Amino acid sequence: MSNWTFYHLPQTIEEALAILQNEPHSKVIAGGTDLLLELQQGRHAPVRTLVDLTQIAELQRLEVVDDILWVGAGVPLNRLIAWQPVRQYATALFEAASLIGGPQVRNVATLGGNVAHALPAADGAIALLALDAQVVLATPEGNRTMPLLSCYAGPAKTALQRTEIITAFQVPLSRKGEASAFRRVMRPQGVAIAIQNMGIWLRREEDIIADLRIAVGPAGPIPFRAHRTEEALRGKPLSEVSLANAENALLSEARFRTSPHRATAEYRIHLAGVLLRQTLQIAWERTEKEPEGSSLLVKG
Amino acid sequence: MELMVNGQKVEVEPQPGEMLAHVLREQLGLTGTKIGCEEAECGACTVIVDGVPVLSCTYPAARAAGKSVLTIEGLGGLHPLQEEFIRHGAVQCGFCIPGQIMTAYALLQQNSNPSEAEIRQALKDTLCRCAGYPSIIRAVQSAARRLRGEPPLPPVVAPVITEPGKNQPPLQVVGTLQPRPDAVEKVSGTAKFTDDLKFPGMLHARVKRAMVPHAILKRLDVEKARALPGVHAVLTAANIPGEKNHGLVIFDWPIMVGIGERVRYVGDAVAIVAAETRQIATQALDLIEAEYELLEVISDPVRARQPDAPQLHPNGNLLKHIKVRKGDMEQGFAEAEVILEHTFHTAITDHAFMEPECSIARPTEDGRMEIYVGSQIPYADRNQVARALGWPDERVHVIGQLMGGGFGGKEDIAGQIHAALLAHATGRPVKLLFDRHESLLVHPKRHATQIRVKMGAKRDGRLTAVETELYGDTGAYASLGEKVLTRATTHSSGPYEVPHARADCYAMYTNNPPAGAFRGFGVTQSAFAIESMMDMLAHTLQIDPIELRRRNALRIGSVTNTGQVLRESVGLLDCIEIVARELKQRAGDQPFASRTVEGQPHLRRAWGFAVGYKNTGLGGGAPDKAGAEVELYEDGSVEVRTSSAELGQGLVTVLRMIVAEEFALPPERVRVLVMDTDRTPDGGPTTASRQTFVSGNAARYAAQSLREALAASLAEKFDVAPERIRFVEGLAQVNGHSLPLGEVAKIVRQEGRMPKAFYEYWAPKTQPLGTGGDMHFAFSFAAQAAEVEVNTLTGEVSVLEVISAIDVGKAINPLGLQGQFEGGIMMGLGNALTEHFIVENGIVFTDRLARYRMPSIMLTPKITAYAVEHPVEAGPYGAKGVGEIVSIPTTPAITNAIYNAVGVRIDRLPVDQEVIVQELSRA
C-alpha cells in the first residue's frame, strides 16, 4: 500500500480546513521532513489523504506587527533565518532554526512542523518556549490563539485536533535590555538531535536579572519550562551563588532520563548545568548591546 | 500535473506516495539524480526546486506541480563547477557528485564569493564517503572564482619525497595530474550505475529476511505471495538448482535458509520474490509467513568461545585460531625494565558506501545469464552465481558497472545470486536493489575486536617483547574473516622490530551480521591498540612519542614478527621525520603538551601521533596474480582490459596512465575496460591494496609485450633492428619515418596477427604464516599527527588538523592519491569519532543511515599530506599499495591527541564524549 493515496495542495486555509473536515482519513503535512520519513519507514500508518500546506500564502507571512514577530507556520526555516528581524529580536529562535537539519532540509522544514511533531527537545520549540511565543490556530470553529505548551499532549503526541492547522507563531520582540540565546549539545554518533538543549530569554536591569524564561529539552515528556529555576534567578545578579541555586532548582524540577545510545541521565544533568551557565551568560552579554545578530556565528 | 524540468515543460502523473526523485529517475529517465538513503540523510538526491536545493527522495512529487526543477542534467554543457570538480580530483566513485554539484550550484547562485565556512555550511548534509572533502571545497572555490571572472585555483596534490639515491628518470605520464577517464560522465549525471539501467520486461525483486538472529526455520508459506497479482516468482531454498551455499573462501552462507535449517543472523534470506514492480514485490514479502524456533543468541566473540555456547556451524564457533610466534616470550619479558598491559575494544563499523547494492540478472537468448553489478570481485561473483544455478562458470557473464564506493563491502555476494535465480525462474531480467536499510542489515561489516596488549621495554624505550590476544567477531558467516583477522594479528605488534612477539587471535562466529573486508583489513583495529600502547609506554618512560617510535621502527634489515626480513622499501623513518618536522613548525618542541584556548578556558588542545603499516597484496602464500590485455586499434587508440574493479579509488586512471606511459601516448587515447568476465582477463579480487601493484604490473607488461610485438612486425617489414623502433606521441618512428599507431595496427593485421597482447602477472611468491620467510611482497608505511580540541565541559572532540606522510613506493597518479589521502583520513576520523554499528543481542539498532553517522564536510580538518617514495623493485615504477594505509594511523593519532589534551585514555571505539566527561570528573 502506498504511503498516501491522495495529495492535496490547497491555496487557502479555508480550502485546507474543508478537505480536512470532509475527508476523515486526512492529515496535514507541512515541510514533511519528519512525517514523510515516518511514513516511508513504516513508523506511521499510511494516510489516505495528505493536505499539503506549503502553497497557502497566509502561512508564509513574516512580519513585524506592533511588538510581535508574526512568523508564518509554513515559512521554510532558511527563509526564516535569513529574515533580519528574527536575528535581531528573537535571537534564540534564529540560533535554533539555524541548527535544525541541513540546508536542504531547512529549505522545506517549518516551525509549524517542528511544533506539531511534538518532540520534547525540538530545537525550534525550545526557542519558541523561551520566547513565550503564542500559537495561532485555524480551526473549523474559527481562529484562536494559545500558549505553545497547549499544543503538547506527550512525547511525539500533539494536542491539536486533526482538523486544526497551526498558521503562525506570535513571538514577542526583545526590546532594549532584553535578549535571548539558544545552545545545544550533540553527539557525533547516532541520530542528529540534541542530547540536551536550552533556550533562555531575559531582561536585565542594571546588574539584576529582572525577568527571564528558561526552556529545556529533553527534560520531561514535552518541552520543559523551568519555572523554579527562573524563580531562583529572578531579581538576582548573575553571581556564582545565584547560579548554584539555579542549578539546584533545575535539577529539582526537571526530569532528565537515560536514553540508550544517546546519553545517561547523569550526563544530561551535567550538561543541563553547563548549558544553563553558558546560555545565561550569552543572553546576559547580549543585553549589553543593542539587539543585533547579523554577526553571530552559527556552529553546525 | 505540469512542471518545468531543466527548462522544459513536462507532463507527468505522480503515483500515490511517489517522491520527486522517483519521478525524475523512473518517469523522466533523469538518472543523474541518485538515491543513496531515501531518508533525507545523504544529499545524493539533491535537486533545485524554484531556486533552492531540496532532497528529492523525500519531496512528494505532487508538490512539484507548477514548479521549476533543475537536475544535474540541466546544467548544460560543462558548467565551471563540473569542470573544477574534475580538475581538482573531487570526483572519485562519483555517486554523490550530482548532489554535491547541485548543492554547490545553488550556493553559488546566491553567493558568488562564498567563504570556506559558507561552503561547508552549504554542503553540510551532502555526504561523500570517498570523502575528498578538501578537494570538493577547492573545486567549489575555484569554480566561484571562474564565475567571477578570476583565474581558477590550482589543484592541490601532496608533495613527493623520494628515498635518497632512488630518483628515477622522469616519466612522461606517470606522476602527472590526469583526470579520471570517467570524470565527465560522473559530473554530468550521464554515468550509469546499476540501478540506472532498465531492460524491457524487467521485473523487480525483493528478499524476505529472517529478522531474527538465531533460530530454526520451522515453517514457511509463500502461497499467498505467489497468488498476488503481478508476482511472477517466489522462490525458497527448495528451488535452488545448484549448490545451496555461497562464500568467498568457505561456502558456509546459505543462499536461502531452508525449512529445518538454521538462521544465523537477521539478514538471512528465507524467500525471494520477483514482481512487476518493486511495490508489488514489497507487498508480497508481507504475505510470506515464516515461523521460527528461537535460539540463544551469541552476541560477542568471547561468549562464542565459551564451551557451553551454542554451536553455530558444524565445526563449532571457532573460525580460526591464528598464531604468531617469534623468539622467546619469557626471555623478552625478563629483559624488560617496564611492562604494560591493557585491553582495547573496537566497534563494528559499516562501509556505508553511497551507492546501495544493486544487481540485475538477464537471461540471454543463447541460454546464458548476464549479471550487471558493481562488484569488487567479478570472477568470484561469476563462480558463485554459476554454482547456485548448477552451471559451468562460463555460462554466466558478469558485466561490471560503475560502483558508488566499496571499501571492501562489495566483495561478498549481495543480490547477484538471488537476482539470477529469479531471472532463471521467470525468463525475464530481474533487478534486485537494496534500500539503505537492507544494505545496513545484510552486507559484511568491519570486525569488532577485543585486543589485549602486553608490552615489555627497556628504559630507553626499546621493545623487548609484545604479546597480543585478539578476539574477532566475524559474525554469522566466514566471508573473509580468517584473512582479515590474520592481518589484524600479524600487524598487532605494530611496524616495530620486536625481538620476542606472540599473538593469538580467535576468529569467532556469532549471531551478528557477518564481518569481512573493510579498508584496513583488520589492521585498523590492531593499529589502534598498539599505537595507544606505544603512547602509554612513552608516557610511562617519559620519552617523546616520536622518539620512541624512531627507536623501534622497522627499517631495512629488520625482521618482522612473522620472520620476514625487510630488504627494500621501508620508508617509515622518512614518514616519521616529515611529520615530526611539520609538527615542529606548527607547535615547536612540545607539540604533545596540552594547551588552552585564549578566552575559552574549557577548551584544551594537543597533538597526537601514530604510525602504521599495511601489506600490499594477498600474501601468506596465496597465489597473487592478475591478467591484463592491451590492444591497439586502427584509429590509433589503445584499450587495456582487466577484470579488476574500479570502485572510485582510481584504478582506471592508473591503468590508463601506465599504458600511456609505455606507448608514450597522450592518456586520453587509452581506453580502460574493467570488470567484465567475458571481455577482460581475471584481475583477481580488488582488495588488500593490491591492484596498482598486480593489475598495474599486468597492464604494464602487456603493454610492453605489445610494443615489442609491434616493433618486431615493423622491423620485419622495414628491415631494421627492432630496438631502433621507438614509440613517441602516438607514432612509431622507424628509420626516420613516422608511422601513426593506427597504421601500425593495420600492418600487423595485414600480416594475419592481432595487435594485442595478454600478460598474466604473478606477484613475488609469499610464504604462509608460521613458516618464516616473506609473508608479503611489500608493505606501505605511514606516520600521522592529529591536533584535537576537547571541550572539557561537554566532552566534545573536534579534529583541527591532520598531517600525514605515506610511503607509497611511487606516486603514479597524484590526483587520485590526494583523494585517497584525504578520504582515508576522513574514514579514520569517522572510525574514531562518529561510526558505531550497534547490534544488541543480534538485533541491528543502526539500521538506518540516520543512526549510523559518517563524517560530513563539517568535521573535515585541515589536511597536509606528503607522498613518500621508497620504491619496491617489483612494483610498477616502484609503486605499492595505497588504499588502506592512508587510513590506519588516523584513529590512534586522534585518541593519543585526546590523551595529550585532557589525560583521558580512550580504549574503546568510537570515542564517547560522555566517558571523557566522566573521566575528567573522576580526576
Quick take:
The complex is a heterodimer of chains A (300) and B (923). Chain A is of the alpha+beta class and 300 residues long.
The computed structural class of chain A is alpha+beta
Portion of residues in beta strands of chain A equals: 25-35%
Number-wise, the strands of chain B total: 37
Which sequence of strands runs across the widest sheet of chain A? 4-5-10-6-7
For the record, the CATH architecture of the largest domain in chain A stands as 2-Layer Sandwich
Give me the number of helical elements of chain A. 11
Mean pLDDT of chain B: 97
Q: Within the largest sheet of chain B, what's the order of strands?
A: 9-13-7-20-17-18-19
User: Radius of gyration of chain B, rounded?
Assistant: 27 Å
Q: What is the CATH class designation of the largest domain in chain A?
A: Alpha Beta
The major β-sheet of chain A equals: 5 strands, antiparallel
Tally of discrete structural domains of chain A: 3
Q: What is the gyration radius of chain A calculated from CA atoms?
A: 19 Å
What's the order of the H and E elements of chain A? EHEHEEEHHHHHHEEEEEEEEEHHH
How many structural domains does the protein architecture of chain B include?
4
